[in-house]
Amino acid sequence: QSVLTQPPSVSGAPGQRVTISCTGSSSNIGAGYDVHWYQQLPGTAPKLLIYGNSNRPSGVPDRFSGSKSGTSASLAITGLQAEDEADYYCQSYDSSLSGSNVFGTGTKVTVL
Amino acid sequence: QLQLQESGPGLVKPSETLSLTCTVSGGSISSSSYYWGWIRQPPGKGLEWIGSIYYSGSTYYNPSLKSRVTISVDTSKNQFSLKLSSVTAADTAVYYCARHIPYSGSPHDAFDIWGQGTMVTVSS
Predict the structure, then answer these.
(1) Partners of A25 in the beta sheet?
(2) Which of B111, B113, B116 to mutate to test the interface with A (most CBs of A within 10 A)?
(3) Mean pLDDT of all residues in chain A?
(4) What distance in Å separates the CA atoms of residue A2 and residue B85, rounded to the nearest whole number?
(5) Distance, CA of B51 to CA of B72 (rounded, Å)
(6) Which of A26, A61, A93, B31 is deepest in the core (most CB within 10 A)?
(7) Which of A110, A108, A75, A70 is nearest to A91 (CA)?
(8) What is the pLDDT of residue B3?
(9) Closest Cα to residue A35, out of A11, A9, A6, A77?
(10) What are B20-30's pLDDT values in tens digits?
(11) How far is A52 from chain B (nearest CA, A)?
């Protein structure tokens, strides 16, 4: 199992704001390593949404924002749209056991 | 526009070696000192980082797979490759190749460009 824990699912009505948490520990997020976020639509490759905790690549709407505090990070989606229904993953680096990039357990976002 | 494309057998027998290649087009694999990586996703499950390689050949592997993984780069062909030995059914997954975004200049950076993925099934 992953060292980064996400809620299995979150949901919201169109236009609402939802947040996805990514909970780690002192060997990953709490150690200061960056957190990145991805969106994965069914049957497609993941798409980078946020890198370096809070930076958006060119082309990603500003409805998506990231933050980090302590041993956790969060992805917020404001003005939820039907097209946001997807799986979301966080990623960081874990320094225990020789070190490894690690992904979160994943969160399914449902637009009601 | 940089594109990545995975290629290789879609079916591998148990105990054999899985071999995949990622071809980079629209840019040089050795330009701007990028890191390149492999990630996999078993059916219906989450993402797992397999390993990454620097254009110069330095490698970084997931400790849980390190004993079975080899990642190499061929700059002359603009490709990097994955070999996973002694495969079992647990290695059945979609395998993605991807580029690390040049943010902090480390193999811990995010993956900003992904291939479409290739499904590999381990079965006799």
Answers:
(1) none
(2) B111
(3) 96
(4) 23
(5) 10
(6) A93
(7) A75
(8) 97
(9) A6
(10) 999 999 999 98
(11) 8
User: Does the distance separating the beta carbons of A101 and B107 come in below 8 Å?
Assistant: yes
3-state secondary structure of A21: strand
pLDDT of B33 above 90 = no
Per-residue pLDDT tens for B40-70?
999 999 999 999 999 889 999 999 999 999 9
The residue whose two tokens read 């996400």 is A6
User: Residue B105: what pLDDT?
Assistant: 84
Structure tokens at A96: 């225990």
A48 to B111: CB separation less than 8 angstroms, yes or no: yes
Single-letter residue type at B74: D
Q: Which of A48, A102, A104 sits opposite B112 (nearest CB)?
A: A48
Phi, psi dihedrals of residue B74, rounded to the nearest 5° = -125, 95
Query: Per-residue pLDDT averaged across A59-65, rounded?
Result: 97
